[in-house]
Amino acid sequence: MAEHLPREAGTVVVGGGTSGNVIAARLAVAGVDTLVLEAGPDFGPFGSAAWPADLLDATRLGRSHDWGYDSGDTLPTRVAFERARAIGGCSDFNGTTQTWGHRRDYDAWAAAGNPGWSADELRPLFDEATRIMRVKRYRAEELTPWQRAWYDAGTSIGLPRLETLNDLDQTTGFAPEDNNIVDGVRWNTAFAYLDPVRHLEHLRIAGRAHVDRVLVRNGRATGVVVLRDGESHVVRADRVVVCGGAYNSPQVLQRSGIGEPTLLKELGIEVVADLPGVGENLHDQPFLLMSWAGSEAMSAAMSRLRAGGWAPDEQAMAKAASSFDPDVFDMHFLPYSPTHRGEEKRWSCGVGALLPRSRGHVRIRSLDPEDKPLIDHRFLSDPEGHDAQVLAEGVEQLRAIAASPGMRDVVGCELRPGPDAADRGALLRHIRANPDNYWHPVGTCGMGPASDPDAVVGQDGQVHGIAGLSVADCSIMPTIPRATTAMPAVVIGERVARFLLATR
């Protein structure tokens, strides 16, 4: 751990989050002098008393140490965009569901001019990351009564019971989730990747170190400007790897003079690289959470299980297909049982539209790195109405499951969207009035060849036109995979680390 900021490092990793910790560990093992700069605290290794209880508790989502981002007035309702500001990043917050998607997702990345990213090339990295993250798979008999009810009843609409969600060639079905939970603890990338290498002399980790911008001279990154404890510091480096995620990485680049020239000039920032794709192409999988009143029988069954001390909110998931993607799948069904609500009955299942067409952006508002950026997802804004229609089809499929024999008495009456959104037109109005996110923002530093005017980085993560500067996190995804993005984020770290080591 670095108590004081060093003046220089071989490689600076900006952000000790899901992807950044993978990069740092792989470089350190290879003998590269590596400094991790994390804007939030570094709580130390697993077992340290400094770790907040909510970041460890795998039964529910983490909440503390959040960046505080939200939609502001860009959407009909204010939507929180939770992101963890702490070592481990969003692997501290997530529901621990580890899904891979489908081979078409990654083969499309490769076909768009990004060699090295095909499904067959990434599969060994998924396997390796799964091992290191200590991912295990729930068995059907381990599911809570609420989760098991949906898993069993999915067959009523033709969703077969699957062993796993993570066959890259498989299509629809309900399965117990794969998860990174160890003895009830959310096993984040700080535990999985950093802890085994924390003892190395050439790995340093600095918490409370918020990177303002990257320094660029003559077309090469030479270091970073860091804010720590109210003071500004310069750290020189041979190479900088930005791993701030889809919201923070474009902010760092924009403050560094890398981005759309008009935006930069309006803020008085000298243009270092004309890359209009920085901050654009923001997308996430729009989401709608349905809820039911539940039943006395379900409440009693879940209360008995809670008394035993282990009743996770998430355990099973379905891959389902709308009419827009009948051959593969383009929806997730996510049963959700908020056990921490005590006696309040709110039994839920959500639908996520996995292949959204709507696109938004992230843009800084000032030179102050602590100022919140404009995050405008523009959910459900695609002209054809595809995204809202997919959600509507998902709601209709979930309603069919809920009405099936054996389920209707378990779930009780529908509370949300409820009877006022019974027909397709009313349902679409409800969906558009209540946009929500699936916690999977991507795309704001999109990967593609230099000939693509919207691409920010090449297939190796190198920022176009700036030597010694890379981005490695979900922001480089040109399009989102049919997945929860936690494991793909780890794989991005593995893939870009190998590119970096091949060219050092």
Automatic annotation (TrEMBL):
Alphabetic keyword roster: FAD, Flavoprotein
Binding site for substrate: Y438
Parts forming coiled coils: none
Location of the Glucose-methanol-choline oxidoreductase N-terminal domain: 245-259
Residues binding FAD: T18, S19, V211, W439, H440
Pfam families named in the record: GMC_oxred_C, GMC_oxred_N
Keyword Secreted set for record: no
Superkingdom as given in the UniProt entry: Bacteria
Cofactor dependency: FAD
Gene3D superfamilies according to UniProt: 3.30.410.40, FAD/NAD(P)-binding domain
Any one Gene Ontology molecular-function term assigned to this protein's record: flavin adenine dinucleotide binding
Family: Belongs to the GMC oxidoreductase family.
PANTHER family: CHOLINE DEHYDROGENASE, MITOCHONDRIAL (PTHR11552:SF147), GLUCOSE-METHANOL-CHOLINE GMC OXIDOREDUCTASE (PTHR11552)
Protein name: Putative glucose-methanol-choline oxidoreductase
Species per Swiss-Prot/TrEMBL record: Phytohabitans suffuscus
